[in-house]
Amino acid sequence: MEGTVGSSASAAAAPVNQWWQEFSKMFQYYLDKSTPHATYRWIGTLAIVSIYVLRVFYIQGFYIVSYGLGIYLLNLLIGFLSPLVDPELEPNADGPLLPTKGSDDLIESVLMDEIDDLLFEYDCRYSFTKAFCIAFVMTFFSVFDVPVFWPILLCYWIVLFVLTMRRQIAHMIKYKYIPFNIGKQKYTGKRSSASSSGSRAD
């Protein structure tokens, strides 16, 4: 009797598992296709954010969901600003070993930094979008609409943001790193050659 019940349950779950695997493959396929199109991906993300904001503004509720979403986004921001290897957790007695201009590891290091930046941007945007989608679905269930005085939540989030960012900025100043790619050199060979040919014509 028990064997019959177990076999019928597994037979009923088999189509669901197959459907889920096919859906996961199709979802991953479209995610992979969107990888080179960063601008369109961020436009889609901003559209989802706008839909969520309009939904919460129209309903005038679900402030606790928005607060939890804000805490999660703050966590993503801290992860973005933090270095991959924290010098406080893994100190190096010999100091950081960076490639020099004459070393063969310089090109490999620059390429790996580019790949890491792209992958982190992709993961960060995906987590950002997924969080807003989950929060949007939660606004359709009244159990998550906890009555709270939203200005208190907003003030508490602002205080938390300021304290966290102050500590993070102090960490950045202490170890002299910037999490953004500012002042990256770009190839300007065509422009320089055009200007030199123009000067020769003069």
Automatic annotation (TrEMBL):
Transmembrane annotation, as ranges: 39-57, 64-85, 148-165
Coiled-coil stretches: none
GO biological process, one term: protein retention in ER lumen
Domain of life where this protein originates: Eukaryota
Presence of keyword Membrane: yes
Main location: membrane
One Gene Ontology CC term in the entry: endoplasmic reticulum
UniProt keyword terms in alphabetical order: Membrane, Transmembrane, Transmembrane helix
Topology in the lipid bilayer: Multi-pass membrane protein
Subcellular location, record wording: Membrane
UniProt keyword Membrane, yes or no: yes
Task performed by this protein: Involved in the retrieval of endoplasmic reticulum membrane proteins from the early Golgi compartment.
PANTHER family: PROTEIN RER1, PROTEIN RER1A
Family: Belongs to the RER1 family.
Protein name (Swiss-Prot/TrEMBL): Protein RER1
Source species of the chain: Arachis hypogaea (Peanut)
